[in-house]
Amino acid sequence: MLSYTPPLKDMRFVLEQVLDAPRMLAAMPAYAEVDTDLMRQVCGEAGRFAADVLFPLNAVGDRAGCRYEQGEVRTPPGFADAYRQYSAAGWPALACAPEHGGQGLPQVLNCVLQEMISSANHGWGMYPGLAHGAYACLAQYGSAELRERYLEKIVSGEWLATMCLTEPQAGSDLGLLRSRAEPAGDGRYAISGAKIFISGGEHDMTANIVHLVLARLPDAAAGSKGISLFLAPKWLPDGARNAIHCTGIEHKMGIRGSATCSMQFDGATGWLVGEPHRGLAAMFVMMNAARLQVAAQGLGIAETAWQNAEAYAHERLQGKAAACPAGQDGGRADPIARHAAVQRLLMTQRAYVEGGRMLAYWTGLALDCAEQHADPAMREQAHGHVSLLTPVLKAMLTEQGFAGASQALQVFGGHGYIAETGIEQYVRDARVAMIYEGSNEIQAVDLLLRKVLADGGARLDDWLALVRATAALERDGELAAPAQALAALAERTQAAVRAIAQAAAAQPALPYRVAPDMLRVTGHCGLAWMWLRAARAAIDGQAQDPAFHDAKRATAGYYFACVLPEVEQLFAVINNCLQQSAGGAGACFYPQGD
Amino acid sequence: MLSYTPPLKDMRFVLEQVLDAPRMLAAMPAYAEVDTDLMRQVCGEAGRFAADVLFPLNAVGDRAGCRYEQGEVRTPPGFADAYRQYSAAGWPALACAPEHGGQGLPQVLNCVLQEMISSANHGWGMYPGLAHGAYACLAQYGSAELRERYLEKIVSGEWLATMCLTEPQAGSDLGLLRSRAEPAGDGRYAISGAKIFISGGEHDMTANIVHLVLARLPDAAAGSKGISLFLAPKWLPDGARNAIHCTGIEHKMGIRGSATCSMQFDGATGWLVGEPHRGLAAMFVMMNAARLQVAAQGLGIAETAWQNAEAYAHERLQGKAAACPAGQDGGRADPIARHAAVQRLLMTQRAYVEGGRMLAYWTGLALDCAEQHADPAMREQAHGHVSLLTPVLKAMLTEQGFAGASQALQVFGGHGYIAETGIEQYVRDARVAMIYEGSNEIQAVDLLLRKVLADGGARLDDWLALVRATAALERDGELAAPAQALAALAERTQAAVRAIAQAAAAQPALPYRVAPDMLRVTGHCGLAWMWLRAARAAIDGQAQDPAFHDAKRATAGYYFACVLPEVEQLFAVINNCLQQSAGGAGACFYPQGD
Q1: Residue B419 is nearest to which of A171, A252, A561, comparing CB atoms?
Q2: In a domain, B326, yes or no
Q3: Domain of residue B365, CATH code
Q4: Which tens digits make up the pLDDT trace of A23-39?
Q5: Which of B152, B202, B437, B474 is catalytic?
Q6: Which structural domain range is residue B418 located in?
Q7: Which of A140, A240, A418, B395 is geometrically suited to a Cys-Cys bond with B440, CB 3.0 to 4.6 A?
Q8: Are residues A111 and A22 in the same domain?
Q9: Would you call A428 and B253 a contact, using CB atoms and an 8 Å cutoff?
């Protein structure tokens, strides 16, 4: 049986000691009142809700799954009630603007909330998961009428929202989508088409469901430039049922408590959101918010998996450990946490979870800065950092969600493979996050092609300047070695970008080939940066709570010694691909004649 | 819907062109008649059985699972009938000695059979999975009476066998086991205790089940030196039911068609196998056979996963590929197999599957050599190679079974996460193989501590001499660069072993800490060796079937460019641990004060 303890102390360490969030937020007029106490209070309440209400429903949701019957979907026992508590407590409104009924709290606290929800119950979290993105998209692109009619309902949690993109023939490539929207002449549109993989497309949690749907207008160009975005509610303002129906739900590997729906639109009434044919731009507001949230899912899953593996490793006695000769039972066997191989598994999880949390929250703060900083130049710079790190976090943290859950399962051994233990559900649940909201391969292309090469590396350089500045603070003393490693990594990363940009002129396929490696290299720049800052914060905070801060320093040391070296592999692959490319080989390195 | 095509052409390439198996077997009197035709015939028949009989039951087994009722276990529909066909065709007897009713065919063909069974139906394969190990163990350690009574029944497949080791408190550490065996005075023993995770402990496939059980005699020492091995059948020779009962089956993440039983022994009648208190030595005969078989499971799963991902990637059209501008549909979208990121996923799988097959079959041939070569010195040398590579193959190929299945799922995208597609079952099934028959962490310790450091690296050096000899053949010409990389890798591996051995004197925990890295380094020595040989065979065979051989060379190139660089990460970690160790830090690198 698993447990979940909200990691409040670790979160405080990150927010207060490493990132100095209260001071950063103080530079944003909207968050002038967000002080340390308020942040702690929100984290504490979110943690209580996640641990007390959501976590007990996690295994229930997996076992019961959703039931589909004649267009209706029944969510697992307890799910709808948990949602009522969630919206009653005002969680949907957390980071929404006060003028729309929101609490006006910073995005970084939303990151904390999302992490905890996913730690406790990934499947449940899928239902409210898209509400904030829908809110952001409507707030920015919705007409006054749509904003008036839908924003407050979404902010209050009274209605939930979906994102209807995928069609059977159009997944990663939305340009292939076929759903059509015919103008009715009165400002309304009749939407027709079939959508698949729609999370929360139908359920019994809210009285209405607000669908944001991609479709083509009659005069639309082919491809992604002919796609428009529409809002189509399950129930129309006049109380009539809209022609939108769930035709079935998927039987999935994991997140079985989440209803993944096939949706049929049969001339459903909808309203345009944003400009005609510019639907992808509007949808990307929603998508980018969703991608950061998916990163938090990976993080949350990795946290719970690690917590439980850690606890089990201290309980389970097997074999004498060479590392620590004094057996806890005075005799035959040590806790497996004393065995080096188990320590490697646990420390790798921990280095990614804690490092990933620092980088995710840093990015959450950058998002706040991008939205609310008093200085427009700071807003613009922060926006660049967020756009750079969003794909990195989405891919790295979802990979670690799956890998970390699998590592935790390994610590449990044969018991981990048994359903009742619960950890295998985390492995199954985690797997989907590497696919949805843009597969991790798409994230890699987004990062290298659109975020890095497109501006000649300027945005990356701007961010790496912050990284280098941290390293420069530690020229002497006990952190000199990791600081040097960090500075060298930044240097090598920039050199790799230059070499790729140069080679791409003759070999346009090359950046696509090395994009996955460059994404992880960039991620390690961020993780190493954060671990250096954490080590500094731990040294500075040493006097209070030495054991806690020693553990942070030990994990930082582990990250630099045993996790960061992945970059040696990545750079070697990149260099090999560059060389092959220079030799004229590998224009298409896939065997042709097979 | 998945499919499985036995990779007969690839297998022939490995057996005939890369490994020259017929010539190697000709040096073994027992296999004088095993020529190319016979090998092809066995492979073809095994493939037909796997594809036609076992594969169609794979999803059935996952969906139906096993049913437990009052001590009885019903296997999934079709499983028992498939087993009848399997034993009627003589497959259990394949690599058993003719004097016990076996077919006397080489172990390498057993590797082929095991790979195909696992490709087709991992869950089903668990039932006959331990029969060959039980046969080998009884043939070597059983009394004349036991051999007479049980060997032929096992060889004919009339009875199946189990391995009863694990107890709730004794998993990786068998020294903790508590089951007891009281001598009855007439050569029989009364065995009592509870065993868990017993694959095929109860089922409806055979009339009798032969349990090989570890238990302690009354005068046994504590720990692993006080463990004896017993044979205890479900039905006694006089027709009475033995006091062995299945008390339940596990609900597992995967291999749901396999009955994983809790077994209760209540004074069950058994006979000693081998000497008192030397049970682990006898059990290890069975265990080593099982470990190679588990390696073949990982390989088989990775093969089917890759086949299906490959086929899907050629069907599914999404997006224009930068790599290959000519779209197959003349228009909007290319098959995803033309996208670089998908190619990376597919090629990584392929490099591991084909490379892993070469190394596994090479080890199968070495096992034949160890058992049957005319020259005792050759037998001893081959035995050393098998003992060295068994833990490497078990860990590397089961990791790739899971990673490869997950990579295949990624190629399927959202569709891969849906149960009906079938690939997610392969991910769930594959996961267990990293745990059972000695977790992969145990394999790493077995390799570095027992197989490498224990003899001062002599066995490793002896094997690496073969590796170097291959590299030395390619000093010039188009394979000079990979040959150089291989020679350098062998050199660095030996240097790392020397450094670890030296540091271990002062830091006994160090080898345990770097054991997982050294296992993968050793695995890459083997894979790089095999890919160099494959590239040579492909060049030599080029004239016949150029497309096939070009693909082999392309995959070899991919292995050296994009897979082998993992060793850069591994050596960096090893060096960092050595340095920490030299600095006196990290005697216990796990945070103590947390």
Answers
A1: A252
A2: no
A3: 2.40.110.20
A4: 999 999 999 999 999 99
A5: B437
A6: 1-317+345-438
A7: B395
A8: yes
A9: yes
